[in-house]
Amino acid sequence: MIDFRMATISSRLSIMSEWNRNLSENDGVAWVNCRTAGQKAIEGELRSHGVNHLGTPEVTASEGFTVTDVTKRKITVTCPEKNVSAQFVAPSTALETVHSKAINSLDISAGGALGVSASSDGHLRIWETATGIVRRELEGHAGEAETCQFFPSGMVVLSGGLDTQLKVWSVEDGSCPVTLTGHKRGIQDTAVIDKGRNVISCSLDGSARLWDCGQGKCLEVIGQGSDAINGCAVAPVCDGVDLGASGSPSSEREVGTDGKLLLLAREGGSLEGYGLKSRQKVFSMSGSSPFNCCTFLSSQIMAGGADDGNIYLVDIRNTSEPQSVIHQSASPVKCMLGYQDGFITGTN
């Protein structure tokens, strides 16, 4: 996790994904490295010397690294030469039977009891987070679903696919009462507005669309451009930000758009903001490569993840330049999630 209040990171520590399993065994080994942009990586290993009576492994590090704290599920590693430290947390549960192919998208219900995920083999499934038992198989997309998420109620799921369709699903019985059509190419991301009467989608066709779920209609096409839109996010912003004046009266079917900003991550390398109510472009900020994802960290701070590994933090009150740019890896940033005073990213 990155704390956006202290976003000046030049080096990055990595550890193998199975570190906790390996280090729970006597003489088990896990590799670790420290990478700095433009420099050769420092590589090493951690070795277990058995497990104590509390079940905690006794771990030492090879030259160039130190281990400062170890528990059953957490380990803190430091690279003194680069003055960088990181805590690695092992998963509490690994659900290995929900999918057999790569996962495109995943979300957890507000109560935490259910998950929904879409995989590259075309499966869209609702499952129990405690056990991994699949509760519903959502069938209806022609091909892969690229994105899926719960509505705030936790009883409805929204999905978008390469088949250009948005679908609204019932968690209770797996039925699909609403299918939204209008995009010309595959859907990449979605956002639910308030309780979910209206939703946003963005597509490879270069547009974002505002939808009325109840009537299954598109209320507006927003931000139409020649380049694909890879990610979108919607949130209310702080006072004093000009979101543009509404032109023609909005439909009575439009609910909860006032005071909100629509953030778009574009393939052409720009991060754009639109007043959701006004449909007017508020800002456009250029990056160094295509933007893959975006999110809000607060009512003032937005973040965008780029294909070259850059993470842009932007203050909505001053969008002429980013507040800061973080570069930890050359791997594309594919997803972002605000968490406490920071955010979590996923890379290729």
TrEMBL record:
Keywords: Proteasome, Repeat, WD repeat. It holds the Pfam family WD40. It comes from the Eukaryota. Belongs to the WD repeat PAAF1/RPN14 family. One of its GO terms (cellular component) is proteasome complex. InterPro entries: WD40/YVTN_repeat-like_dom_sf (IPR015943), WD40_PAC1 (IPR020472), WD40_repeat_dom_sf (IPR036322), WD40_rpt (IPR001680), WD_repeat_multifunction (IPR051179). It comes from Strongylocentrotus purpuratus (Purple sea urchin). SUPFAM superfamilies: WD40 repeat-like. The keyword Repeat applies. This is Proteasomal ATPase-associated factor 1. WD repeats lie at residues 96-137, 138-179, 180-221.
